[in-house]
Every structure is written in structure tokens, then in C-alpha cells.
Design goal:
The structure holds two protein chains of two kinds. Chain A is 0% helix and 60% strand. Chain A is mainly β. In chain A, β4 (32-38) and β5 (44-51) form a beta hairpin. Chain B has no helices and eleven strands. Chain B has strands at 3-7, 10-13, 19-26, 32-38, 44-52, 55-58, 65-70, 73-78, 87-94, 102-103, 107-111. In chain B, strands 2, 4, 5, 6, 9, 10 and 11 form a seven-stranded mixed beta sheet that branches. Chain B has a four-stranded antiparallel beta sheet with strand order 1-3-8-7, with no helix packed on it. Classes of the chains: A mainly beta, B mainly beta. At the A-B interface, β4, β5, β9 and β10 of A face β5, β9 and β10 of B.
Chain lengths: 111, 112
């Protein structure tokens, strides 16, 4: 049974700092891994989707990597801004309409 | 471009009342559709998914049901709400089972 864990559960950093959010999964047989951002009381906004054959994806200040063999994905945020404050969730798609979500990392960027 | 609409945004309902949440997708055909529930401080729980009109798969036996009367319409219902049905409900779609998901804006349901 696939399990997805995100560490840390919460993170507070000063503005301008580079940071890494971690996501680990127990079953390496995944089709893809997707990172989302969720603002309080809002839906999930897709940030990056990494297919199982890919190692990383980049969008602006965001870079996500995938290491299936170790069961890990990281989301790197460069030069963090207060507007980056949100909860970040990762989701591992294991096929058959099964996508397992982590509980998220709540990020607070201090101005 | 594809868009997903979900309404209402918030809903306060008494225990025992019925429920109907609606989700529609525009700009695509035959999408896979999903209903998730998110409890406070917890991950997302898949409730139902659908691969076509009238085809509904339930992941968690509960007080809720889903229907897909049209290709791009997905409805979450209940005949009698329980206090435990309170939560944040999210609709999502994907073009295939292995592609990424796009979520709606969510419905905050409070059962009182």
C-alpha cells in the first residue's frame, strides 16, 4: 500500500531564503508525482508534474526532482517571497485511478 | 483551455438535510472526474471517481453518493447529512488515469 509522507509539517523562513520541501513514498512503482499549492480555504493549484521517466521539472523559481529508486521527491523554491506562503502537497499516482496525497507542508515566509 | 467549476463555495446545512454539490468541466471531452474530501490538517481522501457517463466507482462506503449525468458534469449527493460529513470537498479532473490532476476551488460544508 502506497504511503506518502511530507516532512516537515510546517516551516517558517525569512524572505529571500532558498528552501527545500521533501516528499517520500513507499512504493516506487508510480506513474507520476505532482506538486500542488493550496492557499487557506482554496482548492489545489498544480505547480509541477513529473512523469516517472523524468528526473526533474522546472517552472520559474520552482524546481521539483524525482528519485524513484529512493522513493523521494523534493520541491526547491528559490528566493522565497511572502507570497509563497501556503501549504504544499505532493501526490504520487500509482495507477488505476489511485493517487495518494501527502498531508502537506505549511510554509510561512516572513517579510 | 480547460476549466473546472465547482459550487457552491460554502454551505451550512442542518443534520438530516439533503446535499447536492455540482462540478462541471469545460474545454475537454470524456475526462476522468473525481470527488475528494479534505479533513482539517489531513490529506485528501478519494471518495468517488468516474471514467464516463453513468460510471461511478466508490472508494469509501459512506453516507454520500455520486452521479455523472453528462460527460462533463459530476454531482455529489446525500439524502441525509451527518455531522461527520462536514469538511472541504474538492472536485478534480484528469485527461487520462496517468495524467496530472486539475482541481476545482472546493466547497466548505458545515453540518450543524
Amino acid at each position: 500500500k502506497q504511503e506518502v509522507t511530507q516532512i516537515p509539517a510546517a516551516l517558517s523562513v525569512p524572505e529571500g531564503e532558498n528552501l527545500v520541501l521533501n516528499c517520500s513514498f513507499t512504493d516506487s512503482a508510480i506513474y507520476n508525482l505532482q506538486w500542488f499549492r493550496q492557499d487557506p480555504g482554496k482548492g489545489l493549484t498544480s505547480l509541477l508534474l513529473i512523469q516517472s521517466s523524468q528526473r526533474e521539472q522546472t517552472s520559474g523559481r520552482l524546481n521539483a526532482s524525482l528519485d524513484k529508486s529512493s522513493g523521494r521527491s523534493t520541491l526547491y523554491i528559490a528566493a522565497s517571497q511572502p507570497g509563497d506562503s501556503a501549504t504544499y502537497l505532493c501526490a504520487a499516482h500509482t495507477g488505476g485511478f489511485k493517487t495518494i496525497f501527502g498531508a502537506g507542508t505549511r510554509l510561512f515566509v516572513k517579510a | 483551455s480547460q476549466t473546472i467549476h465547482q459550487w457552491p463555495a460554502t454551505l451550512v446545512q442542518p443534520v438530516g438535510s439533503p446535499l447536492s454539490l455540482e462540478c462541471t468541466v469545460e474545454g475537454t471531452s470524456n475526462p476522468n472526474l473525481y470527488w475528494y474530501r479534505q479533513a482539517a490538517g489531513r490529506g485528501l481522501q478519494l471518495l468517488f471517481y468516474s471514467v464516463g457517463i453513468g460510471q461511478i466507482s466508490s472508494e469509501v462506503p459512506q453516507n454520500l453518493s455520486a452521479s455523472r449525468p453528462q460527460d462533463r458534469q459530476f454531482i455529489l449527493s446525500s439524502k441525509k447529512l451527518l455531522l461527520s460529513d462536514s469538511g472541504f470537498y474538492l472536485c478534480a479532473w484528469s485527461p487520462t488515469g496517468e495524467a496530472g490532476y486539475t482541481f476545482g476551488s472546493g466547497t466548505r460544508l458545515t453540518v450543524v
